[in-house]
């Protein structure tokens, strides 16, 4: 067992389980704050392992590997939601400070558990049910009207694990999932079914909460999804009426408090026409319905690296260390984030040089990941006084890096 390698001055070591781009983006603020990161990485060339000197390779499902890793850290946080419950329980029993706690994290790991808990605390959500049989699916479609959305409770990301059933005839496309219900795995407890929400747009509210209960919220943002993947974020959400913004922010802060979340919490929401629809859980009068929760820095907060006084990554570190939180206010009227997805060209360095030369105001963030079509390999941020100009510049750069534009 190793002892925590405290930095000079008694500064702590923050352990991060998982070496993806979220762990990687914690490193720049960790350097500035003077705290040390250590990451339990999937491989020695994982995104975060390339920039964090302490990056032992280990499997996050391997109890021994995770406990050994945690023993060298002062607090432990997560790059993803996939650490199994028994591993989390063992860490907790060992007295390792975990942020978020297993009790909270369980709700971000399991969409059925999340829906149940949000219903308990009266948060507005799409109508939903846990389906075990074909008849359950038919009955739910009959009740809320087709189309409906089917989700795997666990393990989904970037729209993988989300299926739309347009009509009862599409039930056959769910046969593999229905077969998996009851077996051990992501569908053990059933399939999450939701009404297909006719949303006006998607919003996200990012908040941070520290163990001592201090909380901070960034402005509500608009997120744009293409084929289930977030491609663009507009901060703040354009033309959002202040009452809805306040209500959505209040809901996110309340969720963080009620669920005891520590660190960053992202609440994904659908903005809907405000209607007296009592059928929805939570009373139904809200102008938003909560889609899902992430208890870690989130794609919807990448704009904050360049667009806010305190980025989500710095704030997450402050929160998990129970340091005073930083100012979340924006630095510019608008910041637009566009994700860079892998395209057809493996060598993107020439394109990268091009976009920088074309637009010196652009902030490019690359994750050190190999290019695979559709994989998130970086993002760009553009801030400024004019939204459509910022959008155009960010989108052009992302498209160019993806090889969509050939100038
Ligand atoms: N009930 C719904 N009604 C309408 N659209 C939905 C619904 N649920 C999900 N979607 C669409 O599918 C996208 C992905 O869904 P969701 O966020 O649940 O899945 P995910 O794969 O866990 O995503 P993430 O990448 O955020 O982890 C949403 O952003 C939204 O565009
Ligand atoms: Mg989502």
Total count of domains? 4
Order of helices and strands: EHEHEHHHEHEEHEEEEEHEEHHEHEEH
Instruction: Count every helix, treating DSSP H or I runs of 4 or more residues as helices.
Output: 12
Number of strands: 16
What small molecules does this complex bind? adenosine-5'-triphosphate, magnesium ion
Question: Could you give me the name of the CATH homologous superfamily of the largest domain?
Answer: ATP-grasp fold, B domain
Instruction: Give the rounded overall mean pLDDT.
Output: 94
Query: Which structural category fits the helices and strands?
Result: alpha+beta
**Briefly, what CATH class of the largest domain?**
Alpha Beta
Give a quick account of the main beta sheet: strands, pairing sense, barrel closure.
Answer: 9 strands, antiparallel
Residue ranges: pLDDT <50 for 5 or more in a row? Answer: none
Termini, distance in Å? 56 Å
Strand content: 15-25%
CATH architecture assignment of the largest domain: 2-Layer Sandwich
Rg, alpha carbons: 21 Å
Helix content: 25-40%
Please tell me what the overall shape is.
Answer: globular
CATH topology heading of the largest domain: D-amino Acid Aminotransferase, Chain A, domain 1
